[in-house]
């Protein structure tokens, strides 16, 4: 069983490649339906990643519908590949979204939201374990961003697949998840 981040990245990128568009839509909708049951809906500021379609990420459009239906403030990010930092913008009807060179959909401009204001973060990932550790693409954007949030910010991973038992090479700087939601189940850490 692969248990280090490098092996897990490879394994889950390959598993995702096998998913059809229909499967991605179906599983993404199931994940959004699971989210409804979480005790997170008394907050105001929710950060959502916009999926990289080419990487077959969870389609967060359903999460966006859920949030706007509950009249929440939705925050999306723009990545700076030089500093590995992210700036966060309020998603409004006027927000223009454009893909960057890595095919990540990003806001072109808008109202800046400080990391400290964000109360719930939906976190993209490739893999996660039963302890709440996650494996991303390895660039460290989310670890940096999550460490800038308040300690009580709720971190929710979204995944198409079950948890691994344990990721071996976890660093002190890796920020753990509070929940991870998959199509048929919620993990609480």
TrEMBL record:
Alphabetically ordered keywords of this record: ATP-binding, Ligase, Magnesium, Metal-binding, Nucleotide-binding
Molecular function via GO: 5-formyltetrahydrofolate cyclo-ligase activity; ATP binding; metal ion binding
Enzyme class: ligase
Gene Ontology annotations of biological process type: folic acid-containing compound biosynthetic process; tetrahydrofolate interconversion
Binding site for substrate: 52, 57
Record-listed E.C. numbers: 6.3.3.2
Residues at which ATP binds: 5-9, 134-142
Cofactors named for this entry: Mg(2+)
Pfam families, alphabetized: 5-FTHF_cyc-lig
Highest taxon of source: Bacteria
Record field: catalytic activity: (6S)-5-formyl-5,6,7,8-tetrahydrofolate + ATP = (6R)-5,10-methenyltetrahydrofolate + ADP + phosphate
Entry's family note: Belongs to the 5-formyltetrahydrofolate cyclo-ligase family.
Protein name: 5-formyltetrahydrofolate cyclo-ligase
Lineage per the UniProt record: Bacteria, Pseudomonadati, Bacteroidota, Flavobacteriia, Flavobacteriales
């Amino acid at each position: 069983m692969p248990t280090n981040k490098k092996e897990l990245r490879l394994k889950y990128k390959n598993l995702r490649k096998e998913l059809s568009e229909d499967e991605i839509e179906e599983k993404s909708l199931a994940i959004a339906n699971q989210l409804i049951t979480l005790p997170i809906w008394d907050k105001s500021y929710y950060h959502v990643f916009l999926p990289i379609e080419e990487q077959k990420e969870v389609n967060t459009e359903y999460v966006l519908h859920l949030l706007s239906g509950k009249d929440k403030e939705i925050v999306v990010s723009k990545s700076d590949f030089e500093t590995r930092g992210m700036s966060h913008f309020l998603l409004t009807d006027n927000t223009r979204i454009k893909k960057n060179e890595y095919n990540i959909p990003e806001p072109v401009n808008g109202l800046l939201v400080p990391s400290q204001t964000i109360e719930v973060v939906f976190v993209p990932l490739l893999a996660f374990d039963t302890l709440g550790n996650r494996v991303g693409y390895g660039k460290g954007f989310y670890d940096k961003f999550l460490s800038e949030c308040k300690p009580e910010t709720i971190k929710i991973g979204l995944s198409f697949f079950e948890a691994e038992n344990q990721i071996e090479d976890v660093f002190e700087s890796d920020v753990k998840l509070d929940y991870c939601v998959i199509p048929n189940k919620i993990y609480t850490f």
